Amino acid sequence: MSPGSGSELRLRDKDTAKAATNNNDVKPAPFKSPLDNKCHRERSAFITWNNTKSVSLKGFMNLLFCLTTLAAAGLLLENMNKYGFRVALANWIHAVDARQNVAGFYPALLLLLYMPVQIFVALGIEKAIALELVPERDGMKAHVVNMLWHFAYPIAGIWLAGDAISIVGGYCVCQFNAMVFLKMWSFVHACWWARDKRRHEAQQAQNGVGDGTTTMTASIGSPVAPDVKETVYPDNLTVGNLAYFTVAPTLCYEMDYPRKPSINWRRVAVRAAMLLVVGTLHAAMIQQWLIPSFTAVAGPIARNEWSVVAERLLKIAVPTNLVWLVFFYQLFHVNMILVSELTRFADRRSYDNWWDSEDMNVYWRRWNLPVHYWCVRHLYLPMRRAGYTKTVAKWATFVFSGVFHEYLVSPPIRMFRVYAFLAMVAQMPIGDFSEWVCRKFGVRWGNAVVWFTIVIGQPLSIIMYVRDYQLAYNGPGGLTALELSVVGVPS
Description:
This protein is mostly helical.
C-alpha cells in the first residue's frame, strides 16, 4: 500500500472524529473558592487524658533541662557574688584528721587502720568453730560481742577525739566501719548456712539419701560460673579468701565470685582519671555551694522566720540534688567500676534505672544494689523464713537501714539526733502512698512522687542537722567555723 492511500486516510478521519467527540464530553471543572477549604472539623484537644500515649513531650523535657541549667547557673553566680570564691582543694588534705593538737596524732587514721583487726578476729572465731575447738553456740556469742564492739568503738573514738577529727573524717570512719560491719555479718551468716547445710546433708546420708558430702558454695542458691573452681566449707576460711571479700565491691559474702581473666589497665587509667575529675568537682561544689547555702538557713530557723526558711529550702534544693547526683556518679559508676576492675570482679551492676522508679519501694530496690542484695539476703528473707509477715519484715529492714543512716551522721557531728533514722522509717508510708498514686493515676505520677520526695527530702533533712550543729557549736552565724569543721582546716 502506498503512502497516503485511501485506507490510511480513513483511519485518520476516524481518530479525528473520536477525539472531537471526547472533547465535547469533557465538562469544565467547577469553580473553587477559598471558602471551600474548611479549616475546622470535629477533633479533640491535642493533649487529653485519652491520647497521652501518642503525644510526645520531648520538647518540654528539653525546655525543663534548659530552665534547670539556667536556674542552677543563676544560683551559682549568686553564690559567687555573695560569698566569693571559696574553693580551696588543698584543705581537703586535712579532711580525715583536722586541727590535731598533738603533732603526729591522727585519730581518724588510727580508727581506720584498726578495722581489719575485727575482720580477722571473725575469721579466727570461724576457724575455731570449724575445728570444733569451741561449741558453735559459744562461737556465735563471740561473733555477737565482736560485731557489737566493731559497731561501737568508732563512736567512742570520734567522741573522745573531739576537734581532732573533722565531720568529713568522722563520716569516712563511720562509712567504712558500717561497710565492714555488713561484710562481717554476711561472712558469719554464710558460714552458719554452710554448717547448717552440712548437718542436713550428713543427716540425709545417715537416712540413705545423698552421699553426705557438702557441695556448699558461697553463692547460696545461685550456681557458680563454669570457669570458677568451687570452694567448699571450711576450705574458704583462709586469709586470702576473706581479704578478697573485704576489698571486693560487694556486701554479700560468697566463697567464689565470677572473675574476669585479667585486669584491663587502660580501663583502670580511664576510671582513675574520671575519679580524680569527678571527685574534685564534688569537693568544689560542697565548699563553694553547699556549706554557704545551708549555713545561711540556720539563722532564719533560729529566729523562727519560717517563710524565709521555706524560700531558702526551695533555693538550696537545686545545688543539694546536683551534688547528690555527682556523688551517685562518683560512687556507683566510677569508683565501683574501678574497684571491680582492680579486683577482676565480674559483676559490674551496682544500680538499676532508679530514675524511672514508679514508686519509692521500687526506687529503694534499684538505687543501691549492693545494700539491697544484703538487706534481702540477710534480713528480709531470713525473717520471712522465720514466719514473719512481709509487712513486719519490710518494717524491720527500714528500721535497720535507718539505724545505719543515723550512724553515718550523728557520730561525725558528735550530736545524737534521729532525723536520718526517722527519714528512713518514713519511707514505708511514703512507699505505700507512692504505690497508691501509681495505681490510681499512672506510672508518671508515681515517678513524680519519687522525685518530689528526693528533691525536697534531702535538703530538709540536712537543714535540721545544720541548724542543730550551728546552735550547738557556732551560734546562729558561724559560716567559717562550720566550714572548718566540715573540711578540716588546721587551726
